[in-house]
Amino acid sequence: MNQTTVIVFFILLAVAVTGFLISLYNKLVRLRLNAEKTYRDIDVALKQRADEIPNLVSIAKHYMNYEKEILTRLTELRVSYQNTTDPNQKTGLANQTSGALQTFFAVSENYPDLKANNSFLELQKRITELENKIADRREFFNESVNLYNIGIHEFPNVMITMLFRYKDKTMLEIPESAKNNMKISGFNTFYSLKKDPEKKDRINSQQGPKK
Fold first, then answer.
1. Which of these, 24, 55, 65, lies nearest to 163 by C-alpha position?
2. What's the CA dihedral at 99, 96, 161, 149 to 10 degrees?
3. Angle formed by the axes of helices 197-206 and 187-195, nearest 10°
4. Backbone angles phi, psi at 21, to 5 degrees
5. Which of 13, 68, 70, 198 would you label with 59, given CA atoms 20 to 30 Å apart?
6. Phi first, then psi: what are they for 168, rounded to 5°?
7. Handedness of CA 86, 133, 56, 98 (dihedral sign)
8. How confident is the prediction along the chain (211 residues), in pLDDT tens digits per residue?
9. Using N-to-C axis directions, what is the helix angle for 157-164 and 3-60, rounded to 10°?
């Protein structure tokens, strides 16, 4: 094998390796961009849901004096969501907000005056519509995130992801109950009141004239 042949061999090898690495990189870029696109699609609905929380808390606080922890939690999650720009953190906060809203609407069943408030009913309807919209888009978002998360850990992709510090993305966890008009079992509420019957008495004594 003469010197020219050796040089040509290494040039061809370098071209092949470079092309292979470029192909891997482009694949990862496509996965990342697709995940980011589906996130933008669902983020619109998540922002709209977050925007409804101040109005919800404003109405509920007049009826749910014994549930300040829940209302404070919702407010804190909304502020954190609005102040965060990192998609992973926002998705995590959205997951927590879904759980907090589920708890809130479960506890609200204990307050008939609140349930009779027209403004509250309109907000509940609006949030339910947003939850359904989020749930409809969740499948596409989670599928793209799952493909991305798998892709960055596969070999030989991992060689590129380690170099460019690719990280896993958070999947969106929407409770199935959120898709069913946010109606959840009253078991938790019943169990809570059974454990603390005095709380039920306090709630009943708190109720004022219906709005």
1. 24
2. 10
3. 100
4. -65, -40
5. 198
6. -60, 150
7. negative
8. 678 888 888 888 899 988 888 999 999 999 999 999 999 999 999 999 999 999 999 999 989 887 889 999 999 999 999 999 999 999 999 999 999 999 999 999 999 999 999 999 999 999 999 999 998 899 899 999 999 999 999 988 888 888 888 999 999 985 655 445 444 434 444 444 444 555 445 545 544 444 4
9. 60
The answer to whether the beta carbons of residues 201 and 158 sit under 8 Å apart is no
Query: Do 46 and 136 meet the contact criterion of CB atoms below 8 Å apart?
Result: no
Give the count of beta carbons closer than 10 Å to the beta carbon of residue 19. 10
What are the residues whose beta carbons fall under 8 Å from the beta carbon of 159, sequence distance 6 or more? 21, 24
* Residue 50 identity (one-letter amino acid): A
Q: Give buried/exposed letters for 28-50 (b at 16+ CB in 10 A, else e).
A: beebbebbbebbeebbebbeebb
Cα dist from 61 to 66, 113, 209, whole Å: 9, 12, 16
Q: How far apart are CA 101 and CA 96, in angstroms?
A: 9
Cα of first residue to Cα of last residue in the chain, in angstroms, is 95
Pull the structure tokens for residue 191.
């169990």
